[in-house]
Predict the structure.
Amino acid sequence: MRIRLLFTPLLLVSMMASANIELDLEPGLWQHSFKISSQSGRLEQMMQEFQQQLAAMPEAQRQMMLDMLKAQGMSFDGMNGSIEVCMTAEDLKQGKLPEQEGCNQQLTQQGKNRFRFTFQCNSEPPSSGSGEMLIIDRKTYQGSASFSSDFDGQQEQMQMSQQGRWLRSNCT
């Protein structure tokens, strides 16, 4: 299923690790929301087709698909999506956040609350790019990224904007 393409960039941008950087964020359950656009419009077309297929499914099948995504902490609406992630105090203190397997990331601090990052993933589909993240306060951040990913055998340039908000201290 190609939905993975939609969520891959989010994981890349918001879940990096750097042993030398302490992230001044509130530990607990976070919601990372994002919006993606592609240069060619093909991604948007694919998501529109997926939404149509989802709408055409029998209610029980559609609900099962949505429940499967929700069980993984994901929700989306067209080109907008979100994922919930637990970030522990120890991980934040060490500058470590959950990483996506197969990705190499570099996070550099540009100011007290501003960070720049680059990433390259050998996952399916492969992707690479760069962006920045601004911590607004301990419970809010925003960011943006430009990246390319393989889409049906062709490179696709995409833009993403994202926001993070703290939900609660308990991750369960």
